[in-house]
Fold each of these.
Amino acid sequence: MTNRATTNDLAPAPRSSDREQLATELLERLKYRIGKDPKVAKPHDWLTAAILVARDRVTDKWMDSTRRTYSTGAKRVYYLSLEFLIGRLMRDAMTNIGILDEMRHALTSLGVDLDVIAELEPDAALGNGGLGRLAACFMESMATVDVPAYGYGIRYVHGLFRQQMADGWQVELPETWLAHGNPWEFERRESSYEIGFGGAVETINIGEDKQRFVWKPAERVIATAYDTPAVGWRAKRVNTLRLWAANPIDPILLDAFNAGDHIGALRESNKAESLTRVLYPADATPAGQELRLRQEFFFCSASLQDILRRHLQQYPDFTSLPDAVAIQLNDTHPAVSVAELVRLLTDVHGLDFDIAWDIARRTFSYTNHTLLPEALESWPVPLFERLLPRHMQIVYAVNARILLEARKDHGLDDQRVRNISLIEESGERRVRMGNLAFVGSHSINGVSALHTELMKETVFADLHKLYPDRINNKTNGITPRRWLMQCNPGLFELIRESIGDAFVDDAEALPALDAFADNRDFQERFAAIKRENKNRLSNLVGSRMGVRIDPAAMFDIQIKRIHEYKRQLLNIIEAVALYDQIRSHPELDWVPRVKLFAGKAAPSYHNAKLIIKLANDVAKVINNDPAVRGLLKVVFVPNYNVSLAEIMVPAADLSEQISTAGMEASGTGNMKFALNGALTIGTLDGANVEMRDHVGEENIVIFGMTAEEVAKVRAEGHNPRAIIEQSRELSQALQAIASGVFSPDDRNRFAGLVDGIYNHDWFMVAADFDAYAKAQREVDAIWTDKTSWYSKTIRNTARMGWFSSDRTIRQYAKDIWRA
């Protein structure tokens, strides 16, 4: 105790944040850490220096937060996620610790523009889309609402690919965000753990009817931790994002190298490093599937070993683990953690299986993000058993318990027993990771009210009947610091000037802005800020793509992962139909519109990549047709990431949230757009339902079938061909696409996409087209009445405070984590 007190007494005083002190420290970091004289320093040198100065202040708060957690014995939350789409961190950190303006002045005094160097910061390629961005928002909000937390994931060297276009086709290139290091992170060599794969399990008899199991892996790698501070608003708390890098046990086989086998000598090193090279390696091949399972187990095992080591530093044994620790599984990617924790507790730490299983179940909770069966991961039993033989034994043991309980205690019939089994028996035998996460957790939450209810009725219907108290809802949210304060400073300051500072700390104070929705002066200022944001996006599109778009036109934006259920295809087909109408009826007063798309398609997802190509082919024709007179333009902006979203979201007039009802779990892009003053056109899917309830049905444009109607049509039989034949606009648009009007170099390029709509239309593109086209003309009518338009969009901003991730995290902490 004396040493601890002495250490605290010796802690340095908080650093000053006045601009003179910051300028002095910038020069010191430039000289002593980067080795540059200011006269020859390049912009990237100043960027690193600025980050290091900010990082020092963040680190002070970080240490304080860690000491406070240890001294109070507060319960820790561990958030396991394969993705953390954190984006650029410098502006975020400086804003949250309150030095952004002072740093700007300090840099200006040294002849450096903060905005210029901020653009040089790499966008961390640690995620794909909504799942990863949600995890990043949650990390910031956990620190903001003072929940002690660690985020655990993988330190991808390349992460998700960098997207380029070659003749309109997506081309995947490595994202080199770590090429010059990452000044935010700290390597923790002392936090390294062995991770095994393959091999065999040895059974040792240790007494009557008792056995001990020893897994002897055939392969081993080392997981080494890299920590990045996650700063909460006003630096109330700084938590830790801990990412794992893989290293070989033996980096080089020297005998092989000296014998001339220079490639073979590095095979262990290459095999280890491949684990953390790429996010979501294509899994269309057995090798790709194996790499993905290796990745998931690698980061789960390292994280759990780290959690257990930290627990034993404060507590004598693991009986207190559920009271001191909450582990949240973000989707099924970390679901193997359930089996791994049981293995560590039984095989390594000697606990009885029953006790270990009870501890695991009370410690884990699971967030489900999808109702798509193919997205609920499953692994071929032979692959799982070969790679993780001990875990396969544990899965079978758990499954036996669950199925016996279902049979004996609940009397479930054969079909329901098959549905809840951890092993899929129809066709290829597979380990169901969603079922494993469900039975191994005390709480299973959906991410919107609709999604949660559909979980109970569809993918987990029988498990819900078996465990009716486990499923609950936690509607997603976004951090207003990143998605208003930083990406739209003009609007943020206008709101602050109008309603005061309360919303800065509590987004649920935003409804006070309602009083200004019909105020003409406020509307004009609101419109001017939107126009400024649109100018910025127009300049980006012009410089990056050579396409001129008019900021006076309606900016109609759909940015998200390219997937058939998100229905970018519906949007493109409507663009083709609108193109036909503009050419056919030039006498009508058409609303100028720019349809902007961005998003990445999984490398092995053929139809998604074809949709990108169609968007670019349609854009090429429409944008170059003088008959359109500039009234319609289509643009696909490549390489969608957080930094691009921060420019596109504030510039949107219309937000496209048009997924097939019942298929989008929540969405968070819908929240970001509305918060920044965009009108939403969407289906009653995911969080759109709750958004409608909060913003008012008069301030959102809803169209199309409901989730119940979609399910009914699918069950009773859907005849898309008849629907298409009855819709002149849809029929003409599909014929134009299928016949090669937009692909004269390959007239059959899109025939398969169109055939899919004619023959089964699983995603209800034909079924919803007429309603969508009608809704778009309703949007046109609202746009022409600017007073009405801005009244509605201002109310969207005013009523989005409930969708703050701070609210979501408080609900997790109260209802699930008890933290």
Amino acid sequence: MIRTPFNEGWQAREKVNRFLEMGGIAPAYQDVRLPHDAMIGRRRDPAAGGASGFFPGGVYEYRKSYTPPADLRDQRVLLEFEGVYRDAMVYINGAYAGQCPSGYTAFTVRADSFLRFGEENEIRVECRVHQDSRWYSGAGIHRDVHLVVGGPVRLALDGVRVTTRDADAGSAVVELSAVVENDGLRPVSLDVSVGIQDEEGGQVASGSVPVTVLPGEPATVRQRLYVRDPALWSPERPALHTASVVLVSGDEAVDQDRVVFGIRTLQLDPEHGLRINGESVKLRGACIHHDNGVLGSAAFARAEERRVELLKQAGFNAIRSSHNPLSRVMLDACDRLGMLVMDEAFDMWTVPKSDFDYALSFPTWWEHDIEAMVRKNANHPSVVLYSIGNEIPEAATPHGAVWGRRIAEKVRSLDDTRFVTNGVNIPRAAMMAAVMAAQGRLAGEFDTLGPNAMMVAVSEAIRESAASELVTGPTAESFGVLDVAGMNYMELRYEVDRELFPNRVIVGTETHPTRIDELWRLVLDNSHVIGDFTWTGWDYLGEAGVGRVKYADSESETGQVAGIAGAYPWLTAWVGDIDITGWRRPPSYYRETVFGLRAEPYIAVHRPENHGRRLVAGPWSWPEVVPSWSWDGSDGEPITVEVYSDAEEVELLLDGVPLGRAAAGETNGFRAVFETVYRPGELVAVAYRDGKEHGRSSLVSATGPLGLAVRPDRGQIGADGGDLVFVSIMLTDHQGNARHDVDRPVTVDVEGPAVLQGLGSGRPATEEPYTAPVHTTYEGRVLAVVRATGPGEITLRVSATDCEPVAVVVQAR
């Protein structure tokens, strides 16, 4: 079957009930281009709660007019929706045509029996959001839509699968299977011709076999193809191949399909861990949510690709899709760029976590969603692990283990070439014991420090309880149904389980970012632990303020209502190595140092106004440090400087004058700490190993008038209506030094065939929308995202108070 993009020509609006609409009370439709997030432009409401980032729920509807050609009358016509949040209902010419409760699962609707060929038709989609997510979900048709057409005899949709059966440097055996369907009245005999091409387009294998297909009985055709000297896919060398399949009747091509795949092998055992093409690989993992920051939940291909690019540049080689399946376009990017994937199916099974979440639909729809996820992933070499859940409350109970086995076996029945895991957290009994222990530890401190101190104490008590019998026994069956035991915040089990369960392979499915030095040592020292996935690699909307930094003397925190979310106007979680605009925060450079991927020391400066204050940091909080030596008004004030380095020792100098030396490296938590006073100038950190310089870095104080540095990530983009250019905007001095200590409102005007798709900063607490042409910088930075609407020259004019305006040009072709 042939897929055609179906993203243009849609309109969207907030929906009102039918009776209000009959009375003329309904908002007007607005033209939109898919993918689209209907929620990101709404006014936030303090009453909506921090889980959603204080965005209110609602009901939305989309419509599109479509005139199918008359010659499609005898064809099978489907509409494929890759993701609609949530409880999607599809109507064609007013008639119900299909639905899907999950907001992240692809689904198809058979349209041919509803369409009037040669005439105009209305396609309408309704969806709704209401207290059904623990993070910002967005709303609407947030992933691509396709029109899918095939003849009476055709290749099934997603019916071509390529599997590596054996491979080494000299040869590979590749199995290609194709499902052929026949809607006719009589059997049909055809030839199935296949070919495999390498990255340069050269044919490396081919074959042809006949097949007879009975009416209403799909036939699966398999061919084993031999590839000499294959280019194997790996994170370091993500070589891709293309398989072409053609159905031939006589001299006529009846149908055809092309799939991209990679030739690679996977092995798993407790002695070698995870092996790809025979080489052991440790997963340097990032948990990520699905939103694209200032774009909301819309899964633009370029936005998804850019996230993968930046995560890989930051040292990650794997991502975990928390807590729902990834988009197809992000999987495509992972294949091209060499990013390994743990694709996760569910955040809940039968026990709800929010009042109206997917648990209400799970018992009926889980098989459909697993089938859709596996079908989507089958040809993507980047996918190495399926996760069947995240912190499922019932997982550590007998009936929960039954569900786990049921889901895991369903996955294996559809795809036995990858491994199954589940992000398990400690059982409820252990959780309650930990809370009681934490209360005992705090004693009289609770009234002074408030619920934030309680959260920190509970987190530590939970961590310590992970190795207890309260966890060992109840989780044994749930872990037993898996190929890899996924453990959320349970690293104290790693070495315990090496003795208790010698055949168990473990992955840290979710871990605290502040402990990466300890966690990575555990990964390196234990062959049965295949990797670590931090919470999170990229900041996200919703769970507002989970990672916020607090101080004991802060009036806004003392006595706050218990809970981990921040109060309005907190918007992002403020948990992530990279902020929502793609800017690498200090923990990213610390992690890169711990991974052994960075030789240069990284200078992180504590804000001078916080010097001497008592920090009450949560388990996901990173201290308020900035890579800046520009602090106007703080001359002579005490200041703390940290330098992240894997070298043995670090020397700090200001304008060439030594400020001291301090030990660093793993034995000192990869940190050298200096107490000094602030003076403007050039601050230099020099790392030493075995008495010799290992690397250096510097920060220079900004001086003089403000300026604007405006940098598009690309000078040329596609003109098809869906491509994006990301434009970083930074306040600087006349020499280009960043002004992290200054913020200004920035205005962006777009001229030419383009629209401003989003504008925002990494500021975690703000009332400014991402859909306006003006936004205030955070730590001197803001990001503009521009979408081309056609070919031509696009001009961005950027202005800010006290700055000369700047114009940049991008070509859309």
